[in-house]
Amino acid sequence: MYNKILIHETKDYLVISKPSGLAVQGGSKQKYHIDDMLKYIFKGKIIPKLIHRIDKDTSGLLLIAKDQMSAKNLSNFFKEHKIIKTYLAIVSPCPISKSGIIDKPLYKFGSNFKQKMIIDPKNGKIAVTQYKILDKLGSKVALMALYPKTGRTHQLRAHLEHINAPIVGDKKYKGHSVDCSLNKYLFGYENVSELRLNLHNIKNLQLHAYSIRMPSNEIIVADINENFKKNLKLLGLNIPKNINNIFKNTGEKF
Are residues 215 and 99 part of one domain? Predict the structure, then answer.
């Protein structure tokens, strides 16, 4: 599997495109994960270090340092916002604003088996997400670009739920109850009568870590998976060209 998911490598780091359903680190229910895979592949050598994590059900880019010094440098780049990650998400319903910043502290709430990140201004940790709508289908569904300026657990999922634009296929952060059926005619979308898709039937989380812009301005892209690509096609949503420069480094410290 490693050779199939490795998409970029330098003397300091490697980049893999993680498939949805594969955990990054171990847990009580994880038999196989990226951390274990690296220990097996690099057995007897310096084992690469994880710099950041993405959810098990999220697909896409994962940056991994080759040694301790590179890990320290890359971690600092993330903290200083010199590395910019851009995610793609299919959400429903569509956010009211075309773009914006969600600045809402997140707090881990609940038992071990039912934990969820909630908005909590008093007890939560600072969490900031910048977003922009790339394409949409009426008010029902949108393709969004997301930039997590902080790296809290489930940050994108919780923040999008907060603005009532939950990610399609998210079983935990569902937002408010809405009718997401696209079997009806939606004004302003000429091909909608040809669609036969109910978003409730999409079980896979439609969230993909699409690209990383390094401090050198090098951009590394992980192509969207077939499931995500199929759903975009069914919905008639398109990824614009050159979306990797949507978000800029503003130098904030969080």
Answer: yes
- Domain with residue 20: its CATH number is 3.30.2350.10
Q: Is residue 252 one of the residues assigned to a domain?
A: no
**Domain match, 212 and 120 both:** yes
> Within a domain: residue 105?
yes
Active site residues: 55
> Which burial class, exposed, middle or buried, applies to 48 when counting CB atoms under 10 A from its CB (0-12, 13-18, 19+)?
buried
Phi/psi at 173 (5° precision) = -110, 85
Q: Which has the closest alpha carbon to 137: 240, 237, 231?
A: 237
> Same domain, yes or no, for 161 and 46?
no
pTM: 0.88
| pLDDT tens digits in sequence order for the chain, 254 residues long | 778 899 999 999 999 999 998 888 766 566 778 888 888 888 888 889 999 889 999 999 999 999 999 999 999 999 999 999 999 999 999 999 999 999 999 999 887 667 899 999 999 999 999 999 999 988 889 999 999 999 999 999 999 999 999 999 998 998 765 444 444 434 444 444 344 456 666 778 999 999 999 999 999 999 999 999 999 988 889 999 888 788 876 555 55
